[in-house]
Amino acid sequence: xxxxxxxxxxxESFFGFKSFKGDQEAIIKSIxxxxxxxxxxxxxxxxxxxxxxxxxxSEGTAIVVxxxxxxxxxxxxxxxxxxxxxxxxxxxxxxxxxxxxxxVKEDIRSGETKLLYVAPESLAKEENISFFKNVKISxxxxxxxxxxxxxxxxxxxxxxRIRDVINELGDDIPIIALTATATPKVQSDIRKNLRMNNATxxxxxxxxxxxxxxxxxxxxxxxxxxxxxxxxxxxSGIIYCLSRKKVEEIAEILNLNGIKALPYHAGLEAKxxxxxxxxxxxxxxxxxxxxxxxxxxxxxxxxxxxxxHDIPKSLEGYYQETGRSGRxxxxxxxxxxxxxxxxxxxxKFMKDKPVSEKEIGTQILNEVIDYSESAVCRRKQILHxxxxxxxxxxxxxxxxxxRAEKxxxxxxEGLLSVLKFIREEGNxxxxxxxxxxxxxxxxxxxxxxxxxxxxxxGQGKNENISYWKALIRQAELYGFLEKNIDxxxxxxxxxxxxxxxxxxxxxxxxxNRELEGPTDPDKEDLKHTNEALDKNLLKMxxxxxxxxxxxxxxxxxxxxxxxxxxxxxxxxPITIEELTKIHGVGRGKAMRFGKPFINLIxxxxxxxxxxxxxxxxxxxxxxxxxxxxxxxxxxxxxISLEDIADSKGLTYNEVLDEVESIVNSGTRLNLNYxxxxxxDQDYQDEVYDYFSAATTDSIETALDELGEDDYSYExxxxxxxxxxxxxxx
Length: 729
Ligand code: ADP
Ligand code: MG
Ligand code: ZN
Description:
Number of strands: 17
CATH superfamily of the largest domain: P-loop containing nucleotide triphosphate hydrolases
Strand content: 5-15%
CATH class of the largest domain: Alpha Beta
Structural class: alpha/beta
Low-confidence stretches: 522-532, 616-624
Distance between the termini: 47 Å
Number of domains: 5
Bound molecules: adenosine-5'-diphosphate, magnesium ion, zinc ion
Shape: globular
Helix content: 40-55%
Mean pLDDT: 88
């Protein structure tokens, strides 16, 4: 591989991606410049490329430390799937025999192997260390670096030896450590242990914008789950339960109802567990019912839903588990079932624990309760937990709370009383305590402080308790109060809270809402927008992918990822050249797997007499700006113009103008999905009739004729676009 080739060339030709995600480019540069690099990026953020790409561009072999054999095999398969020689990537672990090990070493010596995946145990083996000393090592990547920390959820003691081994290998071998764990404790453990205090740190936002978060009341939950899966047939998903017993039970119920599902928990034999993982990866089963033991070893990019049958014990866990869906940026529906009974059970479990553990455990659980009960944007709450401020309008309706009708209340006076109490009484009390004061509940605690005589005592009784819960929760979410979990969840007044006391403002908060119960069977399940246009073709391509996957014993997503297949259904590539223009398809992949796919598409296009709408993308990409192509593609996918605007950092009006110029230059666009959302049918008819008879296409004139009260400028412009597209083109 030519080292001088730019990063982008390699990204495009090897991985088939046109642009970097997030900090990828800066991270790769940092490692190419031989700096120690620490990457904190959520699951699905694209950490692998951060070491794979520089490895491919560097002289020698990069060592990648990875905790699980399944994970290594998976990544090696994926790298080989991209094309080139099989020797480009290898793994070294206890599953290899002597002659296989020799082959690996030979390929490394010859310089062909760019990435070597090793388990920490193999890395530390004396014979391997002496081998590594005599070959060129470009850098060491420590993936899933949280395994170093006892505070992380997957502690692996062998991970602690990594630094010593690297020191033996040579002097200037840079390290890149990568993790998706957001907690500061784990992060500082990693840095200490790998002794990388001068590392350049890249910390991304933990927002997973493509995941849809939803909490439903836990009623008739088994029927609900069956119904949900039926509505999402053929999609891969995971159902988490807290106990092994529940796992077995739910798996059985699903199978009885004709849904093929396998159980997974630590009580099963290792071989059974490994088989189950394989079947999931190979899509022989779509649904796994599991305890949290299932997940880390699985880098399946196209898990489409994660269901929590039981509410998890912490928001951190919830985030990690839901994070396993939608890694490829596509659909990921995260549905949790909540009941107070489950919470009581969890509290009971904690009863026998030592006091400090119990207290921290309860605080952590309180976060889950608040999360479930609050009607504030779920995404905002999750990110708040990780210390990020998030504006709910950026959620784009990707959670149930943002989609629900909201009921607001005036919070100014209530907020003021709460904040004042906390300021006067000195940041010493938690939410429970405040609620007792407001509701006038006498407790040992508040009599000891004589707070039962405080003027605020019982003053909140005219509202119900959920009102005050919502108020305190939002006081925290909006930064008037801070809650420190390590400090028993005491509420602490912030500067912003203090300022509010000095100059109070009108404040609208959101009332908690009743959680949705069982869905109405007639009600359609949520539609997701990124569905490909040509469903028939998509189905055929998926079947073909499955066949090829079987033949080659590779997971389907190693052949082509879902989003690539979807794009094929809007672009209809029929030559290898055209195929390489599809997102996620580089030259290697196109050569290796492309033939049967383009043949199928070609036949399909001929049989169905399809006008390939995107000739332009392939023949004259320069003739159209990338923006226009982007807009056309996303309109094909029925993405709302507002979302298109947001994703490109444009205003709605700017996108509207672009769309208009696309239509004016002769391209027909089907905008009905969006127009129907924006303009009532009656009004549509009226404007349509107007333009059919009008002598000018001026929007101002149209507004005069039709009345400015009923229409906005943008609505008319949108209708004009629809009109021109349908009649003019
Ligand atoms: P992580 O290890 O951070 O969870 P992965 O490295 O497994 O994430 O990548 C997640 C998904 O994102 C994969 O499906 C990968 O192909 C895709 N991906 C990574 N980088 C890009 C990119 N620059 N453009 C498009 N997709 C990408
Ligand atoms: Mg990863
Ligand atoms: Zn939201």
